[in-house]
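Figure 6 in text form: structure in, sequence out.
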């Protein structure tokens, strides 16, 4: 028994060491990955429920790691968040989005709003406002085309200076969205003080609504809460026709989900949706 206990201890240590080394490797990789353009810009459309037209897209990162295939954000973002380097990736993605929109401007093609995810770590970076502006201004992007998406939990204990900055960005016309609404410890009173234009209801609600009638009630109330506050609401994670029908019935504004499409590379998005509707 003792021998096997020792063995499992050794196995555990090796496992941990391996994990640490893999994480360190990924971290060391970030710089070269950024300069080698290994991060790819994927889009998932945002669909307006009243007419089922695409009105925007969310930018999502994929890491095309040579030799390892495509890595999904959940496997590397927590590592970059832990050591603060996520800001570099977030701003890199913002730049890709701005370059994409700039290209459309040059071609005279219709623009559409794109939501960009920013981690709490990035938002709290001292020079967030300046860096954000430098990128958006360099490409002369209309402010209403860049939506700032921040996870609900990132707003907890929000610092005054960050709140002021968000108010400033809101005044400048950048839409601000609360992501993953309902997934964490929501602070209801925060909703009143944040300059939000959009709430994104976390995908767990639609998933659970299939088997739980009460969760449907929560979704209905979330839509009503948003509308009473004068903000619009996106429901995430629609995978079936029933989901879409339900959301239309209850007057939800927008929807995203696999039912329409999984996130796809931005070039594939252009091919798939060549006749992008005017807003
Ligand atoms: P998120 O911002 O909540 O993005 C939505 C996630 O739900 C995406 O996962 C998307 O692929 C997935 N999804 C969309 N429709 C459906 C559906 O119908 N069913 C299911 N089961 N899932 C659906 P993804 O792309 O793997 O991204 C995971 C998370 O990684 C994102 O969650 C976001 O928090 C983070 N992330 C992605 N890109 C970035 C980035 O550039 N910067 C930062 N800071 N975070 C990012
Ligand atoms: Ca998001
Ligand atoms: Ca979300
Ligand atoms: Ca998320």
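Output sequence:
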């Amino acid at each position: 028994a003792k021998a096997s206990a020792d063995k499992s201890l050794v196995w555990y240590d090796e496992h941990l060491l391996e994990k640490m080394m893999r994480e360190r490797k990924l971290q060391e990789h970030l710089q070269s990955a950024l300069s080698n353009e290994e991060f790819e810009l994927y889009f998932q459309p945002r669909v307006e429920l009243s007419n089922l037209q695409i009105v925007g897209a969310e930018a999502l990162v994929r890491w095309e790691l040579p030799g390892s295939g495509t890595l999904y954000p959940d496997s590397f973002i927590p590592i970059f968040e832990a050591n603060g380097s996520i800001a570099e990736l977030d701003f890199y993605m913002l730049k890709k989005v701005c370059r994409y929109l700039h290209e459309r401007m040059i071609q005279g093609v219709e623009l559409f709003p794109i939501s960009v995810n920013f981690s709490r770590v990035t938002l709290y970076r001292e020079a967030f406002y300046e860096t954000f502006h430098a990128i958006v201004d360099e490409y002369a992007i209309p402010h209403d085309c860049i939506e700032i998406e921040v996870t609900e939990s990132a707003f907890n204990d929000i610092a005054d200076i960050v709140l002021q900055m968000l108010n400033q960005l809101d005044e400048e016309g950048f839409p601000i969205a609360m992501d993953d609404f309902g997934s964490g410890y929501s602070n209801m009173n925060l909703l009143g003080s944040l300059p939000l234009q959009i709430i994104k209801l976390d995908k767990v609600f639609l998933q659970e609504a299939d088997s739980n009638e009460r969760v449907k009630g929560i979704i209905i109330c979330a839509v009503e809460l948003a509308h009473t506050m004068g903000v619009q609401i996106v429901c995430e994670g629609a995978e079936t026709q029933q989901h879409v029908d339900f959301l239309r019935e209850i007057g939800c504004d927008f929807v995203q989900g696999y039912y329409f499409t999984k996130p796809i590379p931005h070039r594939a998005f252009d091919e798939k949706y060549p006749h992008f509707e005017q807003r």
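Caption detail: The chain is about 50% helix and 20% strand.
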